[in-house]
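Record 1 of the preview.
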Amino acid sequence: MPPVLDDANRVSMKAAALHFDQIFAGDDVASICEAILQAAGLMKDWEWVFVRVQSMLERPDPGIRIGAMKGLGHLVRENEKLDLDAAEEMVGMWLESEDLALREQCEQVKGYILEARLHHRKLGF
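->
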């Protein structure tokens, strides 16, 4: 069971990172995908999550790659400090994938990146 990372029961980010890395090292697709989404929403260090997402995209299992792309989309929507150029480059690497579901997820994340860029302009970033 993943650590609870809410205001009522805060665990250290280091413990959470270790927990997520243990899951990422495994081969349970559902657990990995859930952990990617949790990490994207809960970890303060977007770069840590970004590197893990990038690593998960290199895994052979298409379900893990789709989960990683969903995690990237969540990261784009939730983190204003995220390097959108790097996220866009990562998405671009998978837009020509033979996996239709992964390509569709990439298109969705491209939309999130566009929305984030517009939001950044409004805020003066």
